[in-house]
């Protein structure tokens, strides 16, 4: 299949499209089509404003980082702008590797100029003259789409010396990731752009103070940059009229797992899990019953069907225990076993732990070991409790966000499916029949 | 299949060196160069790493450290058709492990090792960014197979066997 077009975009009347305003409806290789639909208007307007005014507008819009942590973008840019330095950088984090997430890919392949335009505006606002887009090496089509768009932007004077005839200059190039999940963490990503192994740095200092080559650097997610041009063009007030008070605008969700309609939707912030599962996702296929939903990605939370009224935005984790994260809705039906799901997920983290710090390196291994024992009928109550102890240690003493956030999905599934875990201790064992206690296992990784 | 000592290698090294010369002087190009080297040679032998180290004037230990850190780089030859099976959660709940099992049975080969005819190798990967089509198998750079069932596996493999 052609990877670009086939990432299915589920259209619906109640979708609100800001980030995906053009994806699927324009030819991404034709810059003139983008321009005809108000493309680069945001940039033209920004260049008529002072950098401070651009940042002020973003602060007023309360745009928050779509990479998952929701840090206010205007504030991040302001920090970067205020640091004095001969050189500054803008980096787009396109290392999208969260299992279940494929939204950034759709944006890069469907509307690459929206990302480039957002980055040039960032460069102007913070005083940077060089930008990098760090893309997962496996995203061949995204790489080709962005490289093509960058060369066209140079041709049209939107990149390079004196952008749109002004005194501002900005260069942009693509850097490839090489298959390490931890490189999505911004400081590991910076190490990787510097050509090194992608192991995280100590934060603070945050990249706005000391980033690429120790210079002030803005790092934002693909979707965050794509939000910027319309905000500048249409104003902060317009943006704030969409979504929730604390998290204005829209969010692009990746719907996957046991759903009738799987694909990408863009809806206002604050949309409930129930609507995402039933209205947009079409419910659960084959007449089966929903067992749980993981929201927010691998590092996100598992919730039960009765908790689906949770409205997702950057504060929902605190309010209802369901995290927004990178916008994944993974539906899991009754045919799956909670122990088995937890084990698959924890194997992922154990595999992706970069090994720099022991709480994460050892913690993930022990977690996988314990879950494996459960799946073979050899678990104990002490082991179950031990999972909570390891979670606490990892949360408190892991070096970076990877290790720190492993306890989030783990605890949420242990809390909600305690009975199911414990029923693996006695016969008849796995209530769903997924874990076969004496089956030899093949090596998988 | 040692490409390194073959006569055509001169040509391959030349291609790599042209690329290196075009990016040399820019900072932090090591990873892009290794991508290119693996694209040209198929894998990153010690000899090739040594070459990159000398050309870029970067210590061999650093080159080696980078090669072993990233999953994408391989120091061993892979099959002509690399089969990547996604074991990301969205694919897992759609039965990706059954696909992997079937592939291992069909090809009778260890993970990450080429088959005896050199035609295939199987690799488990995390999310391929096509989760709506789970379970997903990617062969080569852009042959995506979505909603794969175990019974389709041998049909898919035949396509590549016939192409020989
Ligand atoms: N999109 C994806 O594929 C993935 C996303 N994530 C998300 O990543 C998040 C964790 O990311 P982290 O970068 O570790 O979170 P963080 O909370 O350390 O930082 C978030 C952002 O705010 C900035 N920031 C925070 N405090 C700052 C300060 N005082 N001054 C200046 N800047 C400041 C950071 O530089 C960063 O850009 C999780 O919430 C998770 O949802 C995790 C894995 C994959
Ligand atoms: C293990 C790990 C992986 C991450 N992966 C990504 C990623 O793939 N894409 C992304 O945008 N942010 C990722 N992040 C978050 C980044 O560190 C950073 O917060 C983000 O790029 C900031 O951009 P934003 O403010 O626009 O969200 C990851 C964080 C961690 C801890
Ligand atoms: S928490 Fe894990 S991924 Fe992060 S530095 Fe420690 S070992 Fe590496
Ligand atoms: S989880 Fe398999 S493609 Fe995303």
From TrEMBL, chain B:
The keyword Cytoplasm does not apply. It comes from the Bacteria. Binds 1 [2Fe-2S] cluster. Belongs to the complex I 24 kDa subunit family. Its cofactor is [2Fe-2S] cluster. Coiled coil: none annotated. One of its GO terms (molecular function) is metal ion binding. The keyword Magnesium does not apply. Keywords: 2Fe-2S, Iron, Iron-sulfur, Metal-binding, Ubiquinone. PANTHER family: NADH-QUINONE OXIDOREDUCTASE, E SUBUNIT, POTENTIAL NAD-REDUCING HYDROGENASE SUBUNIT. [2Fe-2S] cluster binds at residues 86, 91, 127, 131. This is NADH:ubiquinone oxidoreductase 24 kD subunit. It holds the Pfam family 2Fe-2S_thioredx. PROSITE patterns: COMPLEX1_24K. CDD domains: TRX_Fd_NuoE. InterPro entries: NADP_DH_HndA-like (IPR028431), NuoE-like (IPR002023), NuoE_dom (IPR042128), NuoE_N (IPR041921), Thioredoxin-like_sf (IPR036249).
């Amino acid at each position: 299949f052609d990877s670009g077009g086939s990432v299915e975009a589920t259209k619906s009347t109640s979708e609100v499209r800001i980030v995906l305003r053009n994806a699927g409806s324009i030819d991404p290789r034709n810059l003139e089509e983008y321009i005809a639909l108000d493309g680069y208007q945001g940039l033209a307007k920004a260049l008529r404003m002072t950098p401070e005014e651009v940042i002020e507008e973003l602060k007023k819009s309360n745009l928050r980082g779509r990479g998952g942590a929701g840090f206010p973008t205007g504030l991040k840019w302001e920090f970067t702008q205020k640091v004095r330095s001969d050189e500054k950088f803008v980096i787009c984090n396109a290392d999208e590797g969260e299992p279940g997430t494929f939204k950034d890919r759709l944006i890069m392949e469907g509307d690459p100029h929206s990302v480039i335009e957002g980055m040039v505006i960032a460069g102007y606002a913070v005083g940077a003259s060089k930008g990098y887009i760090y893309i997962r090496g496996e995203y061949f089509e995204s790489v080709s789409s962005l490289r093509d768009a960058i060369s066209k932007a140079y041709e049209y004077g939107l990149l390079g010396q004196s952008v749109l005839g002004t005194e501002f200059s900005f260069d942009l190039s693509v850097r490839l990731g090489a298959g390490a999940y931890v490189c999505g963490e911004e400081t590991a990503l910076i190490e990787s752009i510097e050509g090194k192994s992608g192991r995280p740095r100590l934060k603070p200092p945050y990249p706005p103070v000391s980033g690429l080559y120790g210079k002030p650097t803005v790092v934002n997610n693909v979707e965050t940059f794509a939000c910027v041009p319309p905000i500048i063009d249409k104003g902060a007030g317009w943006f704030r009229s969409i979504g929730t008070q604390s998290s204005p605008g829209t969010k692009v969700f990746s719907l996957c797992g046991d759903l009738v309609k799987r694909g990408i939707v863009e809806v206002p912030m604050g949309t409930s899990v129930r609507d995402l599962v039933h209205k947009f996702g079409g419910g659960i296929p084959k007449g089966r019953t929903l067992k749980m939903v993981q929201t927010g990605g691998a590092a996100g939370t598992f919730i039960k069907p009765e908790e689906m009224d949770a409205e997702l935005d950057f504060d929902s984790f605190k309010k209802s225990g369901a995290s927004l994260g990178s916008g994944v809705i993974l539906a899991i039906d009754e045919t799956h076993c909670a122990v088995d799901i937890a084990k698959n997920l924890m194997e992922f983290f154990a595999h992706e732990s970069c090994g720099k710090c022991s709480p994460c390196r050892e913690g993930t291994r022990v977690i996988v070991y314990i879950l494996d024992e459960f799946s073979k009928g050899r678990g104990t109550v002490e082991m179950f409790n031990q999972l909570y102890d390891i979670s606490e240690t990892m949360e408190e003493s892991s070096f970076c966000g990877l290790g720190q956030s492993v306890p989030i999905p783990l605890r949420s599934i242990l809390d909600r499916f305690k009975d199911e875990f414990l029923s693996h201790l006695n016969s008849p064992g796995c209530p769903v029949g997924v874990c076969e206690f004496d089956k030899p296992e093949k090596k998988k990784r | 299949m040692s490409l390194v000592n073959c006569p055509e290698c001169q040509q391959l090294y030349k291609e790599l060196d042209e690329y290196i010369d075009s990016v040399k002087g820019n900072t932090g190009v090591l990873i892009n160069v290794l991508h290119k080297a693996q694209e040209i040679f198929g894998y990153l032998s010690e000899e090739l790493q040594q070459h990159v180290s000398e050309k870029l004037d970067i210590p061999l230990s650093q080159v080696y450290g980078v090669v072993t850190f990233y999953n994408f780089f391989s120091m061993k030859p892979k099959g002509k058709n690399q089969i990547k099976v996604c074991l990301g959660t969205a694919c897992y709940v759609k039965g990706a492990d059954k696909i992997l099992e079937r592939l291992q049975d069909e090809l009778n080969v260890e993970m990450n090792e080429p088959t005896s005819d050199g035609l295939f190798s199987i690799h488990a990967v995390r999310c391929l960014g096509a989760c709506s089509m789970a379970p997903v198998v990617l062969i080569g750079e852009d042959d995506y197979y979505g909603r794969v069932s175990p019974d389709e596996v041998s049909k898919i493999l035949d396509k590549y066997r016939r192409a020989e």
